[in-house]
Amino acid sequence: MTKIISFESSADETSVAIVEDGHIILSNAVATQINSHQRFGGIVPEVASRHHIEWITRVLDDALQQANVKPSELDAVAVTYGPGLVGSLLVGLMGAKTFALAHNLPIIPVNHLAGHIAAANFNEPIIYPALALMVSGGHTELVLMKTENSFVVLGETRDDAAGESFDKVGRLLKLPYPAGKTIDEMAHKGQATIKFPTAMAHEDNYDFSFSGLKSAVINYVHHAEQKGETIDHNNLATSFQNAVVDALVGRTQRALSDFPVKSFVVAGGVAANSQLRQTLAELLEKDAFAAIKFIPVPRQYTGDNAAMIGAAGYWNYKQGHFAGLDLNTAPGLDFDLLEQN
Ligand code: KG4
Ligand code: ZN
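# KG4 complex -> structure
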């Protein structure tokens, strides 16, 4: 039995978790700063770092207490070193290094995006080769995993991330940040009365683009304002969300047709979206894909949390992939792109 303590602080959540064998969550303490950033309509990096500093030791104590585990029973310390905000990452990294030094434990460097994907193992074990749709506030990627802990990006967004487009439309509608969950709820109550463009449906690749859709929504709202018309925000939410889900599912379908995989994972904050989960489940029920196992990340682990870092950390642990106390942050860290020939 391998017990890993993990630290996550790449954005506005301070989190420490203890995970056994990569999939049994003994504790997952999360402190969110959303209330502090809401009045600014987004994350303010300096404010985020300060909050991480204030919270990290309390969250660490909570994680140890909830799991009822002593430091001497731990095998390693996993930590997110990128991608993310440099000031935020540094706090988690310092916390992890200090804990590792104090308790003589090895350090495992973890890519935050790998963490999001590894959280599928909290649902059931990923079967390889696997495809993952990674959709968060900063990333939108289709990732091929030929084997455990190997990642190749088939396609990614050329402009806004999927979550970012939800948050920008939310800002336009004066919804609190982050707006994804609220728009998801509003979309349930509305009708798809507005036809927005589905991004890049005809291009021969696996890339995404959401800025055209965002502009179409902005133009629609401004146009209505100029004419003094009132907009049904729920209908707008439904129509916008349909366009995002169409784009995500369309590209996924193409990738699943081209790459024979055994399982399909949807991960990242936007993977909490009910329409996205539902539409992907329906896609995977089609005859052509019926042999592929659909493994969505459990909804409560789609957003940033340290348990997912413990899950991905276990992959590195098994492969002997450790770091020294000189481990630094990598704010722009990403997976490699598929080599085009
Ligand atoms: O993965 P995450 O927690 O943080 C990043 O690594 O970016 O993702 C946060 C993003 C935000 O943009 C938020 O609006 C979006 O996930 N999100 C959602 C939903 N819940 C969170 N988007 C659509 N539908 C949701 N239910
Ligand atoms: Zn994230």
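# post-check
Residues 3-117+301-340 form a domain with the Nucleotidyltransferase; domain 5 fold (CATH 3.30.420.40).
The chain has two domains: 3-117+301-340, 126-296.
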